[in-house]
Amino acid sequence: MNQQRPLNLFSSVVLTLAVVTTFTLLIQTLMTSFVTAAFPASNIYIAGGGSSLSEGVHKSLSQQFSINHFKNNIELTYNPVGSGTGVTNLLPFTSNPFDYAGSEVIPSNNQYNQVPGLQVIPFIGVNVLVVYNLPELSSSERLILDRKLLVDIFSGRISNWNDPSIAALNPSIASKLPNQPIKRVVRSDSSGTTELFTSALTAFAAASNGATTWYLGTVPLPSAWPNETPINISKQKGSSSLGNYVLLNPYTIGYNTPDAIIEQTSALIINAAGKAVAATEETCKSAMSDFKDAFDSRFTANIVNAPGENSYPIAGYSYLIYKSKSMEECNAAKVLYRYFMFLYSSDAENVIISSTFVPLPSDLQSRIRNEYLSKWICSSSESVVTTDSDLVAPILLAVFGGFIALTSLGIVAYIGINSYVKKRKALGEPISEE
């Protein structure tokens, strides 16, 4: 007589758990598929570059974004080839194409015409500092210069440190001003820093004597000093080289950005309101506020020589430039859109400040998000606008679906096992719980 094998409840439970585990893995696979379909960010390469002035903050922000948002799914690069080259690399048929550029140089009309929807938006505020090396002064004694003095010094009209015009603005240190020639230090390469500085000198010259040019300046403004630069000017390539040269050579004066300043003293500048101000986050924001309604039709603004009492007079914007209608890779455009949205967030502000640059005022950031980034499309006219909800929705759908499926499976398993046990008991068959 054949004996029925006793039902082993433990084996049944193990079998049920195996089925549940398999089903869970299936749900996870489906969840990944949903997310990828909603926002396919894998293996996307975003190439940016341009401004060397803002290189550090661009690289810090791209790294932060990659870690916080997509980990290793995308690659964001920034190549500091200079503002002018950055814009050129957005144009058709370039050998080193960029998806976006950082720049203090505004595209020309011809460049705008070559790229449908080429868009410029302010990115960060930048102060250009006047740095100097006067060994006779202590660390607590700070040089004060006004706007006309800066024009005269960099034009060569004032050539000695003990010039009466400098002494008159600095009575407390006038006796220490040396009878030494002023050695001017400028950038040899084309740079956004030079463009901002020469823009300020041109504005100062116009304000002081009605001129539209100054000795080394022209209109349109140069981003590099002319080859015929006179003697007593040293040309240095890059902000670090300029900073080091001033640091190591007495009686020099130059210009630089805060991120490149190492153990150097910068001058207080008397602004248009007659107040001596330092280059700080607050004085740069004041200059931005003074010109908040000065943006032109292409969303650029010149904020040098701001009229506010607390405004630093050599301030400007570093811009982002992108293709708002003509990026061919829509998935890349969606990632770049998300990156730009991150750049105008509170998380990015902390990185910008730690990099010694200045975040935009909140109302300007809102305007950029709502009036410009929200209208971004790729070349197929598909909107690139994506939000966190585009990621959350499919995840929630998959999780909810998985919950329903697992619950249903559990109920079915319970009913099946319970029915089987009852049937065995009704037939008087043994049941094992081992």
TrEMBL record:
Ranges of residues in domain PBP: 46-326
UniProt xrefs under InterPro entries: PBP_domain, Phosphate-bind_PstS
Organism lineage string: Eukaryota, Discoba, Heterolobosea, Tetramitia, Eutetramitia
Keywords associated with the record: Membrane, Transmembrane, Transmembrane helix
PANTHER family: PHOSPHATE-BINDING PROTEIN PSTS
Family matches, as SUPFAM superfamilies: Periplasmic binding protein-like II
Domain of life: Eukaryota
Annotated family: Belongs to the PstS family.
TM regions (residue ranges): 7-27, 391-417
Name of the protein in its database record: PBP domain-containing protein
Pfam short name (any one): PBP_like_2
